[in-house]
Write a structure and sequence with these properties.
0% of the residues lie in helices and 51% in strands. By secondary structure, the chain is mainly β. A hairpin with a 6-residue loop joins strand 4 (35-41) and strand 5 (48-54). The chain is globular, with a radius of gyration of 13 Å. The model has no long low-confidence stretch (mean pLDDT 97).
Length: 113
Amino acid sequence: QVQLQESGPGLVKPSQTLSLTCTVSGGSITTDYYAWSWIRQPPGKGLEWMGAIAYDGITYYSPSLKSRTSISRDTSKNQFSLQLSSVTPEDTAVYYCNVWAYWGQGTQVTVSS
């Protein structure tokens, strides 16, 4: 069974870059046709898909976040990462990594000075 675990700072200052990593176990991030996503949920709001990196390394981004988002991977560590630049308090959310029906537990990121 695939397991995902998010890691990264819980507090980021405005205008800085948010960086999170998802460590995958029980499966390979290069498995054919898998797309590994980052999804977030701001307080009191619904889930927002941010982007994904596919098994072949191709990335896909939400149009609303594309200018600030970068997703990369380290196949040697079976990890994929999110970078969100120029953050504001509106980027405060629980951030999840996901593939198919498998979710990480989520990590709270607060943007505050």
